[in-house]
Amino acid sequence: MAIGELPAARVAASAEIPLLAGREALLGDAADTHGLVLHVTHAADQPHELGSAGPMDARLYPLLTSVLPSGRAAAAPVVLLEYAKGAFAGGRWVMINRTLSSAFWAGGGAALLGELAAFAAAGVTELWLKPGYACYEPGERPTLTLQHERLGRAGAAAAAAAAADGNAVRWEGRLRVYREAALRAAALPSDSTDGAAADGDAAGGPAAAGAAGSTSAEEEGKAADNSEAASAAGRAREEIHAEPLRFAAGRGLGFERLTLPLAAEPGFYTVEAELTSERGERRVLRQGFWGRDEALLQAGAPLRAGRDYFTRAGRPVPIVGMTYMTSDVARKFLHLPNAALWERDMATMAGAGINLLRTGIWTAIRTMSLADGHVSEEILRAIDAFFLCAKRHGLEVTFNFFAFTPERWEGANPYLDPRSVEAQKRFIAAVVARHRASTHVHWDLINEPSMFDPDNLWSPHPVRDPYEIAAYRSWLRERHGDIETLQERWNMTPEQLPSFDAALPPLREEMGMNTTEMTPRRGGQWLDFVLFSMDMHNRWARELREAIRQIQPEQLVTVGQDEGLRSLRPSPLFYEEAVDYTTVHSWWQMDGLVWDGIFTKAPHKPNLIQETGIMYVETPDGRAKRSEAELRNILERKYAYAFSTGGAGAVQWLWNINYYMDNVNESNIGAVRADGTQKPEADVSYDFGAFIGQAAHLFAERQLEEVAVVYPFSNDFSNRRLADEATLRLTRTLAHRMNVPFRALGEYQLGALAEQAAPRLVIVPSAHNFSDEALARLTAHVEQHGGVLLLTGPLSLDAYWRPGGRAAELVGPSRIVNVRREEALALDGRLLPVSFGGAGIAKLNKELLPDADGVYADGPATLHERPLGAGRLIWCPLPLELGETYEPLEEVYRHALAAAGVAPELEWRAGGELPGVYGRKVAFGEGVLYVFVSEYGAPCTVEVRDPASGRGYRFELEAERSVLFATDAAGELIAIYRPDEVRVEVV
After folding, report:
1. Phi, psi for 358 (deg, rounded to 5)
2. Are strands 962-968 and 927-934 parallel, antiparallel or unpaired?
3. Phi–psi pair at 848, nearest 5 degrees
4. Counting Cβ atoms within 10 Å, is residue 110 exposed (0-12), middle (13-18) or buried (19+)?
5. 651, 610 Cβ separation under 8 angstroms
6. The whole model's pTM is what?
7. What region does 241 belong to: left with phi over 0, alpha with psi -120 to 50, or beta?
8. What is the pLDDT of residues 198-242, one digit of tens each?
9. What distance in Å separates the CA atoms of residue 411 and residue 465, rounded to the nearest whole number?
10. Continuous segment of H or E residues that includes residue 755
């Protein structure tokens, strides 16, 4: 990927591989360079797993870095690529990724190239420094292993060269062990001290922002952050042991085992091995380990979940988070721990304002617990060390246990077989029990769950094992009561479905999901199966959550879900009841980012944008389609939308890109490149970290939106899905084009209507089939509490697509008919065209009312309005949200908003007319967050006035950028996002 000029940068040579020390001036201009995108892994070590890692064949080291005035390494114009495995094992490449100037050649550049060529020709000696455990109990003697192997190149010529140069190469050096000083911070306040700083003991405490830690082993100087803050703080340490090192690295794998002459005490230790070969090659290896520090783990107060946001010791904690495993070995970080690397990276992240890390297990769980109930002590101690590093720097940790489907441990069904579920509980208990008193950790049961078949992900697929079949039949009995009711709802004869015991979980491919499929339509079965899958996921999650509660009742539990609402996977609006907060992972749906946030925000619990990043997109000829600046802007937009939709915060995927997977996406996604330098998108964490740090105290008592939209799950779970498209069009219309905020409710989760501030306007968009119970609940609510209920599309179809007479109770007799390609809506003296293109005339319906003579005649549709108790019903018989144009939809929404008395939250004086400009006011008890996002192709001036405070604000909104600022209740500015780049004028 191209990296532009960095005119204010200085260059720094690697201290770990000092080939360019003293030669920086030759290569130190501000010329353009490139960051390498590595895709060196082309196999999986767990082929049956979607998230499998692969062989770690190669590693990239920066030999020269460009460092910004802030201290952040922004590019590596000279890098070293070494292969340790595979077809290129033993090969070295030194790459200078810039055009060389005449000054380079005049200053001895040719001689330097000769030295680099000789270094590359010498081949690779692979060196690892590893602790016996990443964490030791106090009193235990730490052990270390220095692992070495001189690697040869493949092929006959290489074999001959190896025979001629087959002697081992001698290395000498010195090993030093340091005890790191404690860090002080106020990041995790204590309930008992009302937010006072919690200090660790002499071994360490939570870290202040900007505190630094040890650098990495095997990273050889990857300087992800060389900031002055990171290098100046926390450097006091004590050398407690030193000894010489001597070994010969030959063609076979060799080991030097060391037992340190000391007993571990609570605290953090770093180890450095400075090595020089007889041929002059120099290496510095760094590692770390912990003496378990229980006092540090127990310091401070735990994170708690409110309705919208997290708190600690009563203070709001909006999340600016990061997914982190590690840069040296990626997903193998628990198998090959390096606490010194974790310490360094966590110091950098804490210094950026990041306050939460998400980590855990995405693959290879059986290598951690081959036998049910027996978890590797090495793995458990690596988790201990990771948690200790995070606590040292004041970072909350969300630890994920399973991915996509939970591990079965020889059971038949991952969610329903008691053998599997009990084994899962035992695995979780082995981790949680060690941290029952830790105040900065909580648990993510599973990443992006699919139901039920592990071999068929991303939408519900049955296993059809005995446990699933029995649970399904029991669920059907409870839902339907008698077989006759089920036969009617499924449109099946007694011969086809003689009893509940004849029902099997349906296969998606047999459901006839499209109008062009010539298969029997069995939509009723599909609705029930998807509802069953939601309930079974909740049952599973509750059971595992209860297992955690028995060990530690205060630590939070969640489930990490992606945009799975669109794929019929467990939805946050359903699983809210089984967890402490909900999540969404906003990835591919770039046109639905606001939709992502709203329709996953459950009424009673926080919703965290728990993974967000930018998927890699290529041009047809295989080049990267987006620049790094565009990637930054997209990520910034995702963060801004997260906070604007009532989200509890945002967590980026990922700190370091992962090039140890056979996945080109993972080779591109992340804030830090393969060479250890930071991309422009890292700015998003720094900038949001600074902004949220200033405005965090405001995030309490969020005022709810006056408009609520009901997500029509019965339709979405049917074999004629329209809800996704309808709610996306509604969101683009209301939130983007009209700048009207709204909240979401689920069709099967309408209890919040009576439990929270009643919305003035409730919309059910083009649902078609909708449950009788939900419609009755909505109408009863409006009758009792007032407000306007706006329904669009057919009104008479129940959850199973069966026409009924319920519309007659609301609007009189009616008839379901097909839409025409071109329809019309008469509204306020105007005739608005409504077009249904594509497959609309095959999929969609409208509803007709008879004229005064009882005739169902063709003609323009009209809005039907009538009193509904204390409120009002507005019904449009056309499914407007599924039409091609925005105008009729906007006009109907304006009409309904006026009827409901919904006042604009902002008065737009400039910029509001642009469809690509989004703006939102998020009001709190003691202040306001303003969020503005451009999806527009040009910069523009935005000016708004807040009617509540009477204050106006004017600023320039760059194309594709975001502007956020916070004020107190009187409208005085408190904080501005990117204050060095954005000027907000109070008018």
Report:
1. -110, 130
2. antiparallel
3. -110, 145
4. exposed
5. yes
6. 0.94
7. beta
8. 333 333 332 323 222 333 333 433 433 433 334 434 457 999 999
9. 10
10. helix 752-755
CA distances from 511 to 56, 468, 490 (A): 44, 19, 12
User: In angstroms, rounded to a whole number, what is the distance separating the alpha carbons of residues 325 and 348?
Assistant: 14
Q: b/e string for 370-403 if b means 16 or more Cβ within 10 A?
A: eebeebeebbbbbbbbbbbbbbbbbbbbbbbbbb
Contacts of 540 (CB under 8 A, 6+ apart): 406, 415, 416, 421
Using alpha carbons, list the distances in angstroms from residue 855 to 794, 805, 809, 848: 18, 18, 19, 10
Residue 917, strand partner residues: 934
Peptide bond connecting 268 to the previous residue in cis, omega within 30 degrees of 0: no
What's the CA dihedral at 76, 80, 82, 87 to 10 degrees?
A: 90
Confidence of residue 194 (pLDDT cuts 50, 70, 90): very low
Q: Which of 682, 650, 551 lies closest to 310, judged by CA? A: 650
* DSSP notation for 125-160: EEEEEEES-SEE-TTPPPEEEEEEEEPPPSSHHHHH
Cα(800)–Cα(786) distance, integer angstroms: 29
Q: Which run of H or of E encompasses 287? A: strand 282-291
Q: Which stretches within 491-627 are classed as H helix?
A: 523-551, 572-575, 593-598
Residue 520 DSSP one-character state: -
Kindly report the length of the chain.
987
Tokens (6 digits) for 264: 């571990």
What the block records as the tokens of 399 is: 């630890």
Alpha carbon distance 464, 470 (integer Å):
9
**Percent of the chain beyond pLDDT 70?**
93
Whole-number Å distance between alpha carbons of 313 and 839 = 55
